[in-house]
Amino acid sequence: MRERLVEITRELVAHGKAGTIPLADDVARVPAQNYLDPARFALEIERVFKRLPLMLAMTAELPKPGDYKAMDAVGVPVVIVRGEDGQVRAFVNMCSHRGSQVVAAGRGNAKRFSCPYHAWTYALDGALSAIYREREFGAVDKSCLGLRALPTTERAGLVWVTLDPASTLDIDAFLAGYDECLALFGFANWHFFSSRVVEGPNWKIAYDGYMDFYHLPILHKSSFGPNMFSQALYHAWGPHQRVSAPSTTLGSKPETEWSDAALLAGVWTIFPHVSIAGFDGGGRGVMLSQLFPGDSPTKSYTVQNYLMERAPVGDEIAEANKQFAFLERVVRDEDYATGLKQQRALASGAKSHVLFGRNESGGQRFHRFLDALLETPDDRLETFLKAAAR
Known about the structure:
11 helices, Naphthalene 1,2-dioxygenase Alpha Subunit, Chain A, domain 1, five-stranded antiparallel beta sheet, seven-stranded antiparallel beta sheet, alpha+beta
């Protein structure tokens, strides 16, 4: 897929020289109620977050057998673990006895999982291996009482989990080859540095910002600087989009000198809830943001993960911490603070629609795809995704 990224970079260079960007056919209008309506929000949870694969973990979080990550994903308790065989699996974090969560939220390493309520014990492959005082409990078939497995795929150093245990969705229909481009990062061998949580507005208000370069020199004039690019080119793989700026520097270099880092510049969004943006602070790194809807249409939270090409050493550790703290402040105090105000203004009903300009085709594409997805029944989902990937 390096060839595809070179092809895209040629396009960025050509637009950089010409001072242009591709434009959508027209300005798009999105109903303001799409960000506020409780019924639509409930449908988004069911038809987006609970039936599509979600990027819930990184290989760097689970490098060794026994490494696990337990978390809540839109109300579903999930535990992701690397087995003794090296395979990553995910389960509903729920004991087969009384439904207690078996693993406390967080990361760690374990040989097995023991429920804190009655000590029913599970192997790393999810099998029920022991029942406390089994003879007194009574006869049950342990082979039928393992943790409930969730469809899981590890690609390009990232782990996707589908929250519907019965899902048979073809992951390739969903990824549309995007994982092959992401593989050029080499995330499987990167270092997980740290993570933080930031609370924000409606998940779509937050996600709109990840695909928007138009605001960079305005909203971030006191942080990133007033000379940031505001033009963007969008390239799509099914529902996933890479947002890039026209290049005014690479055109002076031969293509053989285009580094992987240069080819991967920009913001990579993974539908429906992930953004990957590159930064330098203590060494090459990315902030990988996982955006989750909250418990109402007006709430969301984002897990910000700082992933580094290699573990920082010495003074680099302080620099990495400084960079990550800076990024947290920018998102919290500029992006999400603005989004929360935007949300309150939309709730006033003063405007019936918001606008996405011809220069914001990525946002237009996102909302068109989301609208179509919400109207797609389960038995047509895979066909819909395959058609979107063409």
